[in-house]
Amino acid sequence: MTTARGRAVRPISLSANRWTSLILGAGSLLAAAAFGWPFVVSAVPADAQAAVPWVAFALVPALVVALALTLDREMYTAKTVALLGVLGAIGAAVRIAGTGVGGVEAVFVLLILAGRAYGARFGFLLGLLTIAVSSLLWGGFGPWTPFQMFACAWVGAGAGLLPRSRVSRLGQRLEITLLAAYGVVASYLFGLVMNLWFWPFAVGGGTDISYTADAAPGQNLASFALYSLVTSTLTWDTVRAITTVVGIVLVGPAVLAALRRAKLSPR
Fold first, then answer.
1. Do 126 and 156 contact (CB within 8 A), yes or no?
2. What is the C-alpha separation between 255 and 29, in angstroms, rounded?
3. Is the CB of residue 197 less than 8 Å from the CB of residue 144?
4. What is the 3-state secondary structure (H, E, C) of the chain?
5. Side-chain half-sphere of 33: how many Cα atoms within 13 Å?
6. To 10 degrees, what angle do helices 169-196 and 107-118 make?
7. Is domain 15-260 annotated with CATH 3.30.70.2200?
8. Which segments in the chain show pLDDT lower than 50?
């Protein structure tokens, strides 16, 4: 393959893309295990709290690998890097502006629309970058940061994996409806996975919503579901879902059109 100026360009191997996707998937599975350990590992709440910084530290190599693999030859172009920088800065500013407003996550609108326009890997990287930049600027780094980075990366990547429809007037309406529905699901799932990182030690023992060491996975799952329902699902997560739907419906068509004019090739 050659460019318009006659320079040879090495084509990107489909097998390389598959390996990239597989390894990114493996990194996400590692992160999912870090979230879901309370259902498979026995620990008393005090031990769980002491282990969280180590679990978060263990996720850092997975983040580095994810960043390195996502920025491969297909993604590493001047236009892609520029868009990542701009959108990451916008996302960080939006996230910081919403700090302290319970449940409002307007940044989900950006992650979902960008993931939809540019694909799962771009959405994944934008989620990582947005949390990293906003945490750095706001001074919010802590054991929760790697968990937030992966959770938001999954939100952006999931939008890129949704089925695609023909771009037409009817198709655009269906697309916005699909993205709004995804925004609701992503908002509630985000709340659930972020609850997991601190639930084992957030509540004392002996209640219906407590983590119980050596309990059957089903019992802890039921306790976690009840904990999430009464602490976030009916409040923070619902506000997040409403905010995301309203944002996608109001600005989705215009933002998608603007993003797509950049005509990035990676998916």
1. yes
2. 31
3. yes
4. CECCCCCECCCCCHHHHHHHHHHHHHHHHHHHHHHHHHHCCCCCHHHHHHHHHHHHHHHHHHHHHHHHHHCCCCCCCHHHHHHHHHHHHHHHHHHHHCCCCCCCCCHHHHHHHHHHHHCHHHHHHHHHHHHHHHHHHHCCCCCHHHHHHHHHHHHHHHHHCCCCCCCCHHHHHHHHHHHHHHHHHHHHHHHHHHHHCCHHHHCCCCCCCCCCCCCCHHHHHHHHHHHHHHHHHCCHHHHHHHHHHHHHHHHHHHHHHHHHCCCCCCC
5. 11
6. 120
7. no
8. 1-14, 168, 266-267
Summarize pLDDT for 98-119 with one digit per residue, the tens: 765 655 678 999 999 999 999 8
- The domains of the chain are located at 15-260
Cβ–Cβ < 8 Å for 110, 94: yes
Tell me how long the chain is. Answer: 267
* C-alpha of 117 from chain center: 16
**For 173-208, how does the pLDDT look when each residue is reduced to its tens digit (9 = 90+)?**
889 999 999 999 999 999 998 888 778 877 777 778
- pLDDT, averaged across the chain: 77
pTM: 0.78
Radius of gyration in angstroms for the set of CA atoms belonging to the chain, rounded to a whole number: 20
